[in-house]
Each structure stands twice: as structure tokens, then as C-alpha cells.
Amino acid sequence: MLSSLLKSREAVLAFAILVLVALIALRFPAFVAPSNLAAVFTDTSPLIILALGQMAVILTKCIDLSVAANLALCGMVAAMLNGMGVPLPAILLAVIVLGAALGAVNGLLVWTLNIPSIVVTLGTMTIFRGIIFLLTDGKWINAHQMSAGFKAFPRAAFLGLPVMAWIALAVVGCFALFIARTPLGRALFAVGGNPHAAVYTGIHIGKTQFAAFVISGALAGLTGYLWVARYAVAYVDIAGGFELDVVAACVIGGIAIAGGAGSVAGAVMGALFLGIIKNALPVVGISPFWQLAISGSTILIAIAVNARSQGKKGRIILKQAEHRA
Amino acid sequence: EPMRIALVVKALGIGFFEAANKGAEEAAKELGDVEIIYTGPTDTTAEGQIEVINSLIAQKVDAIAVSANDTDALVPTLKKAMERGITVISWDSGVAKDGRLMHLNPSSSALIGNTIVKLAADHLPEGGDVAILSATTTSTNQNTWIEEAKKVLPNYPGINIVATVYGDDLADKSYRETQGLLQTYPNLKAIIAPTSVGIVAAAQAVEDAGKVGSVNVTGLGLPSEMAGHVKSGASQSFAIWNPIDLGYSATMIAYHLAKGDAKAEPGAEISMGRMGNVKLDDNNEGAMADPFTYDASNIDQFSSIF
Amino acid sequence: MTAASQPTPRHIPDRLKSRLSRTLKSWEALLLVVAAAIFVANALASPYFLDPWNLSDASFNFTEKALIAFAMAMLIIAGEIDLSVAAIIALASTVMGSAMVAGAPVWALVGLGIGTGLACGAFNGLLVAGFGLPSIVVTIGTMSLFRGISYIVLGDGAFTGYPPEFGWFGQGYVWWVFSFELALFAVMAVVFGVLLHRTNFGRLVYVIGNNATAARFSGVRVDRVRFILFLLTGVMSGVASVCLTSRLGSTRPSIATGFELEAVTMVVLGGVSILGGSGSIPGVVIAALVMGLVTFGLGLLNVPGIVMSIIVGGLLIGVIALPRLWAMMRK
Amino acid sequence: MQAQSASGTAPVLSLRGITKTFPGVRALNAVQLDLYPGQVTALIGENGAGKSTIVKILTGIYQPDEGTIAVDGQEIRFPTAQAAGAAGVTAIHQETVLFDELTVAENIFIGHAPRGRFGLIDTARMVEEARHLLASIGADLDANIRLRDLGIAAKHLVAIARALSIDARVVIMDEPTAALSHKEIHELYDLVEKLKAQGKAILFISHKFDEIFRIADRFTVFRDGQFVAEGPMGGVQEADLVQMMVGRAVDQIYPKRPAEIGAPVLTVAGYCHPTEFDDIGFTLHRGEILGFYGLIGAGRSEVMQALFGITRPSKGACKVEGEVRVIRSTAEAVEAGIVYVPEDRGRQGAVKGLPIFQNVTLPSLGRTSRHGFLRLAEEFALTREYTRRLDLRAASLDQDVGLLSGGNQQKVVIAKWLATRPRVIILDEPTKGIDIGSKAAVHDFMSELAAQGLAVIMVSSEIPEVLGMADRVIVMREGRIAAEFVGETMTPENLVRAAVGIEEAA
Ligand SMILES: Nc1ncnc2c1ncn2[C@@H]1O[C@H](COP(=O)(O)OP(=O)(O)OP(=O)(O)O)[C@@H](O)[C@H]1O
Ligand SMILES: Nc1ncnc2c1ncn2[C@@H]1O[C@H](COP(=O)(O)OP(=O)(O)OP(=O)(O)O)[C@@H](O)[C@H]1O
Ligand SMILES: [Mg+2]
Ligand SMILES: [Mg+2]
User: Fold this and answer.
1) Is residue C274 assigned to a domain?
2) D229–chain C Cβ distance below 8 A for any pair
3) Count of domains in chain C?
4) Domain contains C275
5) Distance between CA D350 and CA D400 in Å, rounded?
6) Of residues D239, D286, D93, D103, the one with CA closest to residue D178
7) What is the domain range of residue C192?
8) Which tens digits make up the pLDDT trace of D425-457?
9) Are the beta carbons of C200 and D393 separated by less than 8 Å?
10) Residue A122 included in any domain
11) Does the distance separating the beta carbons of A321 and D100 come in below 8 Å?
């Protein structure tokens, strides 16, 4: 029991996170103060939300490189709607719908035209950002151009945590339920794990991939608002390159890039791991110039560890081997 | 046909440069036969700027006035531009001497360095810990100002610079770096952000951390972007030169150099229209004007302008 | 008669369609038409376009990326990808800068730049071919690692003051308007074209890309080929680093940011299947020219870079989607 | 008009004039099929006769080009797998169609899981029902375990449970016993009886005649995609069925020519692998065809792949013509003169997407090229030489291999290896899934190779093939050599006993 627990990816990752936090605490005890940990979690919320969306896509053997651009476009639209005086609930609805629609564009190209997702999202990634430029002429929307309510919502504290963190928790909960308890959630695994067999069980590969892109897009849309409201600024380049962080979080969390395998807990912990590193480096007094190299090494170590724990299992033809296993 | 002057900025979409463009247009109108090409890369990279400059060379524009993303990387391309008879100056963020005829500093670097420290010190009679939040590690102007600031530090006893971090002129990164500063240095009294992106993000982070009153955010920023933070008290005061004036002056200088009625050489004085004359030093550099300080008393007056 | 009981086997012709008819229907032909159209459109849109010196200047927009794209094309045809190429440029440039500061001569700088590329390629190759890790995630990791090392070395500093002779690689001209980079681009196009289309090694690249398992079951040393491909990509990144560093005359850790995606875009636009197995070097050459022409043409009209990237992004999806849409509609 | 069975009941399911064409192959040509409630219909036909294709049409995976499907006399269409399930048709497919990362219960219920509150999957009920189903087929499996932790037999039981989880009127079993052990096979027979008693119509596909005679009530025979005959099992003899299936005398398919068995070429001793096989040793001679028989999953392919350098044995030695060879890669195996025609042709054999000549010259590039540069003329010459010998049918030599029929793909793979002039050729299920004409051609060629002095290993799960072609047979069971038979002792009974374990068969 214990040995199988140690072998699970999630356990390894959880252990790694604990070690990491402990090491930081050694140098800087205040890091583990509950309030600070809450702040780190809040900070990591966008990454967690996006990693879950990306997980849905990766499970189906696809990849969504356009998430950050989608986020930026939805965030900008949120800020513009706010400028027009649209009430917050309507803005929230709008960005989620817009994000889902942008995801649907990706999904449709993948589903109906069978274009590899990496090509599609490489293209839409530049197109989405370009659209922001066309919408705004490249102009920024700054804090003073946003209403107080718009900016206050994600940071409003509720039971000691900002709303942003609560939203992330809610998304994690819903997503976990969705993955474990809905036919579509299970279909994601089926499509990526064995596309051939998925057809035999009546699961439509293209439609499932489409759905995954829509989910990823909707979550990116939601995050777009949170991001813009939190940092109180919107411009073409917000969250530039963030898609790689999102993919990295999934990889660290053990979501198999070949599809069909991974867990919600893994994705969340992968995101947390990156988030903790990002937050801790300045605190621990490591030069910010080390950050990139450290996160790169982390990704490499994570892949190696995952590959080992997934290591090819024998097919157990020998009866004696079956007993040993 | 009109003289074509290209105003090349670090990246499109930044409020500061948009304002500079307004000034350039103003100068063009005043001069009459000048067409302004406002351009720049999408993100703040030297490679992007080089592509833009190459296409300007191809168009045989008459003058290029550039705010550089990298002091050195643009030099070969700008040299080529000058070989093809184009007048090249840099403004705001300079290029190395070989790559331009002259450089227009918004203000003298020493003065800016001094101002940003003074802004912090004015509100810290007892002294205290101060941190710097800069733009990218490669920004020429920020690096120069920080150097100058460190030089004048002995004049402000008690002011102690504990860290310099880089927000890369990205709002979210600057925000996170500020959070890191607030945690690492619980006794921090002020954050100096000599960049318009950084100062806004830092002020926001200080507000979110509930440290208004204990940590003062100051540095260089745009009144329109900082108005809210001055009101909230996160920033007591900050400084900036007028970017409109800067764009205006750069255009004027480029015009006169291209026309040939002025020469860029040490000691020369070149007219900047309504901004007076600029005097070049041994490096062919000149300063436009003193930075101007904004606080609660005058912010409303300027926040609608730039 | 034995002939009656054992009918002689049917004769099978070597080829059915002539080379010419296949060439005319190919992706490369389509791209060439696109390139020609863009060329004409540019010439009409801007009076400055048809100037040899301007066209020569414009070539710098794509030569370094294309050098990487040639090697990347082979890697992608073999079913792998290397997203760390831009980071390799940064690291190689940093190594050259450090050596320059230490007083190394120009030939040593070039050697070190290419050598660093080789080492980085070997590292990627080891992780992918040696340990069997997926290349896309490995190179996302090494992309941070390699550039991260540059940041550690350089921090907020820069290496400047390369010797003037070193500037020749990025700024020098071989003959008239033909820069060294343009000449290198042409030579490498031929070298990679021959390597991919005329050698055993090139054949193995296609075989592995179509079916790596079957390749292994046919006695092909699949992992060795993969490793060599990563080496090649590393070396070409090193070469690109020499050119770019020489052209910029300085090294900063942020050098060449985003080059990897442009190189991949070039490769895919050139008709290389991102899933591996098909594509050609001529296609990539034409795609490089198309991208160069588009960005230069729009640049002459002072269209902002981001609008160009929308057009390139649209072109990328469009040229792949259109034939498929066409096939769907005919069905 | 509706077909009537001997007992007078009307068919539940009735197919008429079904035609299905794949690029290059007409898999089904206007075939018919009737299934009756409470009866087991055996569908009989050689490999490639189109049996699995009809199963896929019945379960909504393929759409027929022509023809009609009727349920209870009502014409119906199955556009998706779910539509077929809804109409009460369920199948245990020949390939495993399961998901490694899902649990046993999820595998059983994917696509039609019981729903609880808010339309969410009711996990508890799902697991409960899964346990119930597994128990009903006598499978002792934990419903919550991940599928990837199960062996192949257990997986097959899950597939059966999955098929039964749909409350079906028609149950299709495509070679359900192929991967099962003796005990499990008997439990399956009991299950079939139970389903019959419940009035379900069963379509049973199998190559094993004893099985068919034991449980089937009716038979339908297909040959090369054509309907041949149908009728009740009563009164029909095995020989009649074979005659219908094959359409000619059996010995034509196994044209074994006498060959002189010469000196040892390959000697294998003590090959071990931690999980796949144990203590494998044998000697192979010139001119000999050595058969390897066993149930699917017995580990024969693994042994062959170890010889070919795909997997590495943990222990053991291998000598080729007296010389010790350490084979760590396929390249080294080819150098040693050992070549392998794999079982999984689509994945491991032909490189689809590339032309025929590039497939053929792949391991011989060293000979056709000069200084590493390709010489196409040489490649075409080599390809022409070997494809002529195998009587390949193709439009041109630069045609994509993926467009060829299965048998011709197999010929390309064999040509590829012959062009390397090997000493030992291993053929793993060489005629699996290829049509009957090609099958005879492959057998004929195998004989010829042996006659020319090549040493041949033939892995096969078909007893007639083994008996018809091999000089000597090694039977493997659970990763070990169970027995070896030569001459007189090579009887179907002996092979089956050794393959399933003698004590069980007794
Ligand atoms: N998807 C496909 N594409 C092309 N040809 C196919 C396809 N599926 C089946 N075939 C061909 O159709 C014919 C019938 O195949 P099918 O699988 O139905 O045979 P089978 O009777 O089930 O044989 P076996 O006993 O080996 O399972 C074969 O020649 C096969 O190669
Ligand atoms: N545990 C398993 N999970 C999934 N598939 C399996 C498993 N074990 C075996 N298989 C598949 O079953 C088939 C037969 O297995 P294998 O090749 O090992 O047996 P074999 O003794 O060589 O049998 P044969 O050559 O007669 O097929 C192969 O296609 C293999 O991939
Ligand atoms: Mg079948
Ligand atoms: Mg096998």
C-alpha cells in the first residue's frame, strides 16, 4: 500500500512541494505563515485555472498554445466593457462566453478540418493578440480607467481569502467533479488514451476535442478578467509567454503530453509548484536571474521522474512474475 | 515633397510614447513640410526594432529618431542608415555614440538620478530602507539613472537601497516583484520605480497588501496613470518630464539636422522650437529639461493631458 | 511447359506519374505562386521595393531563422521538435561574449558559438533519444534552462565590443548586395536539400517520421538518427547565433526571443507536416522567402509588426485549411 | 420475404446484400446474415473473409456501402456505436477496445454510465453493477483497479463484461476465446448457455471447430467477402464446413515442399526476461521450418523480438553459425543475418506513407547507395528483383505501401528482408489477416525459402498452418517452452494440450 502510494505521481509531487516549502522556510520562516501561503495561492490562481483547461486539452492528445492570447483578449474586452459601464456580472458572463467562443474556433479547426492543434493554436495565438491591437490601436487601459468595483472584486476578502482564490478553488472543485463524474470528463481520457477504442464505444473524437478547447477557452476567458482586474492594467502583451508556464505546470503535474493520462490533483500541484518557486525566489534572496534556469531544470526533473514512475510495465506473461508484482 | 521623420519607439501601445507622438505631430504641424512616421516593434526587443529600421532605410526616410531597446544592438543598422544619408538621433533611451548623431536625454541623467532619490527621501526624514523596481535588465536609461542615483546616495544620509529588482516593464511581473520586496524587507519604507509601468504596478501591489502609509511608491510615472494611486496615498509624489515635449523636441532636432541648418558636434546648440535650445556635451548628448514633480496638489491638472 | 503452370509475374512500372506533373501539383508550386503574388503586390504597393539594396537588407529578416528552420524541418519530418533553438542562440552568444571578454580571437569565437550549439543539441538529443522523453516537453524545459544560464551569466549586463572582424558574419557582404548571411542561407539550403533528399540519412528521416516503430523493426538505428538531428539543430542554432551576435554586435540574455516559433511557423508553412513524415527543403526555402517578403512589404507600408503577425498566423492556418476545405467541399 | 429458421421463429436481426469496400479491398460483397433469438450462430470464414467487418457494421463503426439491416423486420441504420447499443446490439470485439487509464468499472460503463443527481455519474452504483456483471461471468476482479494493472486475459474479461453491460438482444462475440485460458473458456461457454436461455441471439465468431460444434446451433460461412452458405449445425460435418470456407482442398494452402535439413544455423540457449519469458533454448537448422505454436499471449512474439534485438534478454546466449553474437539492436540482428517479419504489420512492418521501393530497400540502403548518397536506379532494380519473385501486385513501385492490400503489404515486408540475403527469417503470424490467395502464396514462398537453405521460424496460432508447414513445432505456454513435437507426434491434440497445459486439458 505504502509502496504504491510512493509510486504515484501525485504523492511524489506533493512530497516535492513539501520539501520545497520546508527549504524555503529554513531560510525565510515568514514564508510559511498562513497569510503568506494564502497570498502565494492567490497569486498562483490564474496558473491553476489555466492548467486545468490545458489539462482537458492535453488529455485529448492536443495542445492549446493560444490560452495566454485568449486570456489577454478576453481581459481587454472585460476592461473595455467596464469602460462602457457594463455591470460586473454581465462582464463575467461575457468574457467566459467570449473565451469559450475563441476556444471553439480552435476546436472547430481541429475537429472539422483535422488540422494539428499545435498549428492551429500557434496561428490563433498571434491572431488573438493581433485582434487586441486592432481593437485598441495598441493603447493600454490603466487602473484609473477602470471602475473601483471592477478592480475590487477579485481582491475582496471573504473568510480570509481573496475572491480570486475562492474562484480558483471553485474551479478546481467543479473541474474535479467534471472529470470524475461526467461522461464528457471520462471521454477526454478515452479519446487521448485509445482513440481507436473510443470510436468503438461511440465517443466522437473530434467533438470531444472540440469540447476540450471550449473548456480551455472559457477558463482562459474567466482568467482574463481576473488577471486584468487584479493587475489593474490591460494591454496587448499581458500574460505574454504564459502559455508555456501553463504547459509546464501540466507537464510537472504529470499530465502525459501524449494524452489520456493525468489527474486534477497533479495539474493543480504542478501549478502550485511553479507558483511557489516564482514567489519564493525573490523572498529567499536568489537573484531573479536564476529563476528561468531553475524553472527549466524543474521541468526537466519532473519529466524524468514522471517517465520513471510511468516506466514501461512488462506485460506479465510469466505467471511467477505476476505473483511477484 | 515633405521631409519624412520616423519616430521609432520601444514598443507600440505604451502611453508614454503615444504622448511623445502627439508632440512630434505638433512639431510637424509647426514646421509645415514634415511627415511623421510613428512606428516600433510589438514587443520591446532589439531584433524587432532592427526590422523596423531596415524598412525605414528602404523607404529612404529623411530622419530617424529612435528610443532604443538596446544601446549596442542597434548600432550596426543605424550606422548603415547614416551611410545611406539618413539623419539618425536617439532620444529617451539612447544608442551608443557610433550609432547616432546625437542623443536627447529627457533630462540630464544625473538630475533624474538625484530626483528619484530625493522624491523618496523627502518623505523619509528619519531615513530608512528603500528598494528599486526597474524595467528590463537591458533598459539603457533606467540603468543609467539607477547608477546616478547610487552616486548621490551619500547626500541622503539614512537612505539605504536594499535591493534592485526587475519587472521587465510587464505589469504582472512588476506586481509580483513588488510583493516579493514587501515580504523580504518588512521594514521597507519606499519603492522607487523609475518606469511608468513599474510604478503603477508597485502602487497597486502596495495597496493590495494594505501597506498604504507605511510604504511610499515613487519614481517616474505618467500623471494619467498615477492619479488614482496618488489619491489613495500609495504614492506621495512622483516625477516625469513631459513626453509630449520630448517627442516635440526630438522631432525639432531631427528636422534641423536633416535640413542641414544645424550640426551635431560637441558644444553645438540646436533649436528645439518652443522648448528652447539643447546644448551638446562631449558625447554629443543633451538634456531637454528638468523633471517635474507631481503630487496631490497638481495631479488633477495634468492627469487629463498625458 | 512450365511457363503455363507458373505464369510470369506481372511487370510493375517504376513510376506512374511523371516527375513534372507531380512537381506542378505540389505544395511547393502553390507556395511559389503565393510568393510570386506577394512579390508583385509589394512591387506595386511600394516604390522602394524593387531596389537590390533594400531587398538585400530585407533578407536579414529571415536568414537566421531560416538557417534554423532547415534543421528544424528535418527534425519535424522525423516526428520531433526543438523549441529550445532560440535559447541555444542566447547561450551560444553568451559563451562567445565571455570568450571575447577573455580575449579570444575571432576564429575561436565562431568555434565556441557553434560548439555551444552542438553541446546544447547533444543535451537535448540525449534526453530525447537516449532516455526516450518526449521532445516537446524536453525542449520546453531546456528552453528555460539554456536561456536561464545566459541570465545567470549576464544578469542585467551585456557583452559589447566584439572585434570589428567578427562583424563580418552578420554585416559583411560577399559580393555586391549579397551579404554573408544571404550567401550562407543559399549554401545551407543546398546542403540541407541534398542531405534530406539525396542521402541515406535523409531517407531514414522520412522513414522514422512515417513510422518509427517500423523503422526500428527494419534495422534502423532510430535513436542514433534522432540524436544526430538534435545535434544538427543545435549546430545550426549555433551558426545562427554567430550571425545574429555579429549583426547586433552585442549579447544580451534576451537575444532572439521568439525565434523558435517563427522557425516552426516557417517550417509548417513550407509544407512540412507537424505530425512528421512529409515535407521538403525547397518548401521551407520558399516559405522563408514568403515570410521575408510579407514582413518586408508590410514594413515598407509601416504596418505594425503585430498586424504582420496576424497575417502570418492567418497564412499559416489558411494555407493548411484551404486544401482541406476544398477536399471537404468536393466530397 | 423473411427467412425462417428450422424451428420456425423469425430472426431478430437480419442483414441483406451488405457490401463494404476499402481502398483496394472489397471486404464484403452482398452478404447476408440472420440471427435468431435463443440461438448461437457461428460465423465461419478464413482470415480476411470479412467477419470482423460485418461485426463493425453491426455495431455502427462502419457504414455499409450497400445493403440493409433489419431488427424485428424493421429496417434500421446504425450511424454510431451508441445507436447500435440502443437497438440492443452489443459486441465483444476482436481487438481490445479498452482504456488503460480508466478503472475496470469505468471501462465497462463508459458511454452509458448510470446517472445520479444533477446528471452526474453515480459512481457507487456503477461500481456495484460492475461487480455484479463481473461476478456473473465468473471474473474475480476488483472493479476499482486501473486497467493498466491487468493482464491480457483479465482485460478480455472486462471487455466481455462491457458487452454484457448493455441490456442487449443480440450479442456478438468475435473470437472471444482467443486470449482466454482453459478454465475461463469453460466459464464463457456457461455464459453463452445462460444468454441463450435468456432468449438472446448470439453471433459467435471462431476459428476453432471443436468450439463451434460444441456451442453453435447454426452456421453461416463467408469466403473472401462472399456469402457461401448457412444452415443448422445438425448433420453438417467439419469437412463440409472446411470445404465451404476454403473452396478447395486444404493441402493446396500448405504446399510444403521437402527440403534438406542441414547444419545448425541458430542456437539459442537460456534466454530469460524478467517478465516475458524464461529459459528459452532451441536450435534451428538450414532448410528447416520451425513452428512456434501457443495461445495468443504465450510470449512467442516477445522471444522472437528478443532474438531480433527489439527487447533485450536478461540472460542467455545466441550463436549464429557457431559464432556467438550479442544482439543489442535490430541493426545488429540484421548484420548477424537474422530478420523478422512482425505480427503487427500496420505498425511494425510496412512504413505506410512511403513508396514500395523505399520500404524494400530500407535495410539494404548500404548496398544501393554510394558514399551515403542515394542511387534511385539501384533501388528500383533491387525492388524489381525481389517483388517479381514474390509476385507483388501493385500499380507502380513508387506507390504508397499503405494503399496495398494486406497480403501485398506482407509481400513488401518479406521482399525487404529477402533483399538483405538473411540466414534466418522469423515470420510472426505471417498470414494473419491476409486473404486466402496471398496466404497460399506466402506459404508457397516459405517452402521455397526453406528449400533454398534458409532457416525459417514460423510463429502461428493456426494449427492447420503449423501442421501443414512446419518440420518441427515448439509449443510455448506462459512464457516458457512447454513441449516440442516432430513427425508423428505433431497432432492437433498434442499441440492444444501443450498450449493450454496438459493437466487442465485432461
Ligand atoms: N479499415 C480497413 N481498411 C482497409 N481494408 C480493411 C479494413 N478493415 C478490413 N480490411 C480488409 O477487409 C478484409 C476483411 O477483413 P476482416 O477483418 O473483416 O476479416 P476477418 O474475417 O475478421 O478475419 P480474421 O479472421 O483475421 O479476423 C481483409 O482483407 C482486410 O484486410
Ligand atoms: N497485457 C496486455 N495488454 C494489452 N494487450 C496485450 C497484453 N498482452 C498481450 N497483448 C496483445 O495481445 C497480442 C498477443 O500477445 P503476444 O504477441 O505477446 O503473444 P504471442 O504469444 O506472441 O501470441 P501471438 O504471436 O500468437 O499473437 C499482441 O498484439 C499484444 O500486443
Ligand atoms: Mg476478424
Ligand atoms: Mg504475437
Assistant:
1) yes
2) no
3) 1
4) yes
5) 10
6) D93
7) 49-330
8) 999 988 876 665 667 778 888 888 899 889 999
9) no
10) yes
11) no
